[in-house]
Every structure is written in C-alpha cells, then in structure tokens.
C-alpha cells in the first residue's frame, strides 16, 4: 500500500469530474475514505501537548526519601505532597493533584517518563526551539511537522496546530492552524462575504462543477510544464485536492466547530486522526507555568491536565482507529515543556528557570511502566544507558535531540535525513 497516494486521489477526482461535476465532492467521499483507511496502515499519529512557560519537572521526577514524604538532597518538594507510585513509575501526589494518581494507576502500563532531559537553555524561546527541533537552526522543522510530512498517506491537514509552538521550517505547507474558522471559510468561499466588497458564494452543484473544470484544466497544463513551473502547478493541484476533501468531509469531522478549550481541541485532534485527515497535532497546556512568583498553582494545573489525559486515554481505548481496532493502537501522546524549574524555591516560594526537565510519552508502541533517565538530588541530569534507560557511568545525558530522533524513528521517518549522527533512545519504545 505504498503507491503514490497523490496520483491515486488525482485519478479519483478526475474520474468524478468527468461526470459533469455535479455532486463531485459527495460522490468521492466513500472512495476517498476507503483509500485513506487502506493507505494509513503503519502511520502512527502523534498528539503533542506543550506547557509554555517552563513547567516544574519535580511532579514527574520527585525527590522523596525512603519514607515517601520527606524531601531529600538539594531539591524542595511542594508542601503537602508525598510519593505516588504505580509499578516502576513515581510522581508527587497530593490532595491538589489527585488526577495524577488516577492517571498513573489506570494508564501507567502505557506510559513512560523521560527524566533529566537537557534542553541546552534556560530561556523560553531558545528552549522551545531546542525542545521541538533539537537545534537552533531556524530553517529546521519541528518533530510533528517532519512526521506529518512523511506519512504513508497524503493528509489534507498534515500537522494541525490548535495552540502552542510551531516551527514549520522548510515544510510550511504541512502546517495548518486548526479548530475551524478561517481555514474552512477560505475553502468554501464564505470568507468573501465578510470583506469590504463581498463576492458571491455559489451553490454546491455550481461550485463543484467549477472546481472540476479548474482542476482538469490545471491538470492538463501540468503535463506541458517543466522544472519549477511544473512543481508549483503540482503543489496547486495538491492544495486543491486537500481543499475539496476537507470541504466534503467537514461535517463528518466537525471541522466547522471552534475548539477553544484544551480538552475540546484534543478530542477534535483524535477525531480528525481517526478519519485520516491529520497525522500530528499540537495543543498548549493552559496555566501559568512560569512560576517565579510562587509555585502554589502547579498542583491544580497538573491535576487539570492529568484529568484531561485520563479521559483522552479512555477515549483512545474505546474509539475505533483508522488502521487498528482502537485509536490507542496508533496514537502517541507526547507531553513536554521548553525548560524546567530550579530544584530550590526562590525567595517568593517560586522556582526560576532550569535547563533540565521531564517528559511524558504514552500510547502506541511506547515502552510503558518505564522510567528513562534520571537526575541527582540537585536535579542535575545523570548519564544514561540509552538502551536500558538506566543510569550508567559510561552513558550519555539525554537531550532534546535524542528524544526527537527517537520519535521520528517511531513514526517511520529516517532521522539521519534531519539530524544525522544523533543517538536514539531505544528504551523509550517497544522492540
């Protein structure tokens, strides 16, 4: 099923266009949906969550003594917290973050924690770029954009950014700002009625006939072109194909609805992944994570986020997938931030910027019930054996680029094309 998906879709559109264009989009729906399901075999989907501001990593890397209550070494723990544990996983539990207990007890077997990730920076902008691209090169696309651009199938909305950071780099055509709104109004023409000089919007049959006529004429012209002109025309045809597919399936996917909250955005992301419209998505974790002036809100923010994660995992385990019986078999959740916080509280009982952080990765093919990497009592990253995830004097410090290339490989993308020579972390994934 590795045939040229673009050409296959193009033949479908041309065949439908030959029938005079009436009902073009509707007549294609079943064929395109069947094709998408067949083509998506082997494509893991990736849902990224990002805590902009730099989250406190100690909830996912707690420093308690043998009693599970008293903090040890040079790291302060939030007042009222104790060690929570399920299998090999541990976290800081407390009355203000009970959803963390619920999540890890239910889904710990599907979840890995990556500790002591070196972000190479204590600044927001540079840390974000390091975390999402593994470099400081402005032209380098981020992990979700690369994954979205190298799927088996040609997704209409490859990387859907609801909120949070995006580094399109050289693959800007793969990135779509999501949640309904302007994108769909541009596609169906209704945006023209909202400008100073409104233009008419045609009825669906007429609009379909015009789409078919323009598409066929552009297709005939493409065959006569060479070089960059041909490339641009093929890009135009590809954009037109994606627009027609999105317009035809907008109600099926609920794309006309604005998704503002994190949970609503995540549910829509899972839905468009299930329908084969999107491979990757980015969502910002709400809250004030830049806690210089006090750490008191971290527990409540973690509680809200892990409540959403728990419900999403439930949905993934009960919803049919695109190429597997359940979405849980094909979706990977990646939760991270651009930096960590200092191990000690400052004078305002907050934490300042710190270049080591923790990540949570869960879902399809992830080596769950597993901790990869570690930090010492002062929250400094320790060398790790990347094959086992365990501390090793002969190992290396886990950095953003190591996790990133591992995700690329897990998504069937050759990491050497993007970051050659960077060591992967096999302990993070099964097999």
Describe this structure in words.
It is a single chain. This protein is an alpha/beta fold and 431 residues long. The protein has two domains: 1-39 and 201-257, no CATH class; 42-179 and 259-428, Alkaline Phosphatase, subunit A (3-Layer(aba) Sandwich). Helices cover 36% and strands 13% of the residues. Strands 6-5-7-1-8-11-4-12 form an eight-stranded mixed beta sheet, with helices on both faces. Strands 2-3 form a two-stranded antiparallel ribbon. A two-stranded antiparallel ribbon has the order 9-10. α1 packs antiparallel against α2 (24-39), α2 crosses α8 (227-253) and α3 packs parallel to α10 (298-318). The longest helix is centred in the middle third of the chain and has 27 residues, at 227-253.
Number of strands: 12
Which radius of gyration do the C-alpha atoms yield? 23 Å
Helix content: 25-40%
Which structural class do the helices and strands define? alpha/beta
Ranges where pLDDT stays below 50 over 5 or more residues in a row are 1-41
What is the string of SSEs from the N terminus onward?
A: HHEEEHEHHEEHHHHEHEEEEEH
Strand order of the largest sheet: 6-5-7-1-8-11-4-12
Q: Measure the end-to-end span.
A: 23 Å
Task: Tell me the name of the CATH class of the largest domain.
Answer: Alpha Beta
Annotation field: number of helices:
11
The CATH topology of the largest domain: Alkaline Phosphatase, subunit A
Look at the structure and give the mean pLDDT: 85
- Major sheet attributes: 8 strands, mixed
